[in-house]
Amino acid sequence: GAGVSQTPSNKVTEKGKYVELRCDPISGHTALYWYRQSLGQGPEFLIYFQGTGAADDSGLPNDRFFAVRPEGSVSTLKIQRTERGDSAVYLCASSSSPTSGPTDTQYFGPGTRLTVL
Amino acid sequence: QKEVEQNSGPLSVPEGAIASLNCTYSDRGSQSFFWYRQYSGKSPELIMFIYSNGDKEDGRFTAQLNKASQYVSLLIRDSQPSDSATYLCAVNDQFPFSGGYNKLIFGAGTRLAVHP
Questions:
Q1: For residue B99, which residues of chain A lie inside 8 Å, CB to CB?
Q2: CA separation (Å) from A53 to A44, A49, A86?
């Protein structure tokens, strides 16, 4: 595809359930980021992957959140024991060259709107 | 905790006017700055970035950076109704730039409304 894709576009779940959110980055992009955007706020950094490894997971709010990227392309964000406060839009972004400097451009996917009832 | 502050707006301007969007940041060592546009229900899209003091122009958009005042702005000339969106200011969290990646700290955004 031409851009970053994310599935599902919407996810409604009940408190305490487990959810998986998928991100398919732009082909060839080695850097992948997850952000979370709550209503009326800007995106908040969660985790960064370079290839298969999570190089920076400092933004994950707690150990209920986990993300993987086993083959260095598609990434899955996993949330265990969901809470109402987890409701937000989860955005994925990718970039072509993380070493291109501090102006490396991130391209965002359409996001997954997660609602925890 | 590094912070990026923006006036939430809405900033209302008439069609054809100049819209001025402002952003301040807390970390004096921040090196690069980004403006994203986000239409309602859509994902952010990059308008431009700036890393040197002064002005940077791209079409109808001009970014202005003043590191001494820790201030970055975006000017939109000849504003159009299609420019109505939320504008997000973002700052690179990596200081000094290390690790080879671009961890962004976003402001909450300013909502711009351009009326005919």
A1: 55-56
A2: 20, 6, 24
Strand partners, A38: none
pLDDT number for residue A99? 61
Strand order in the sheet with A65-68: A5-7, A19-24, A75-79, A65-68
- Nearest residue, CB atoms, B107 vs list A42, A109, A110: A42
Q: What is the least distance, in Å, from the CA of B101 to any CA of chain A? A: 5
Q: How far is B116 from chain A (nearest CA, A)?
A: 25
Q: What does the alpha-carbon distance between residue B103 and residue B116 come to, in Å, rounded to a whole number?
A: 38
Number of H helices, E strands in chain A: 0, 11
What's the CA dihedral at B73, B76, B79, B85 to 10 degrees? -50
**Residues contacting residue A63 through CB under 8 Å, at least 6 positions apart:** none
Q: Which residue of B has its CA nearest to A109?
A: B43
Tens-of-pLDDT digits for all 116 residues of chain B? 789 999 988 999 999 999 999 999 998 888 889 999 999 999 999 999 998 899 999 999 999 999 999 999 999 999 999 999 999 999 987 655 555 677 899 999 999 999 99
Buried b (16+ CB within 10 A) or exposed e, B82-112: ebbbbbbbbbbbbeebeebbbbbbbbbbbbb
Q: Is B100–A109 a contact, with Cβ atoms under 8 angstroms apart?
A: no
- Beta carbons of B46 and A40 less than 8 Å apart: no
Q: Give the type of residue at A37.
A: Q
pLDDT classification of A43: cutoffs 50, 70, 90: very high
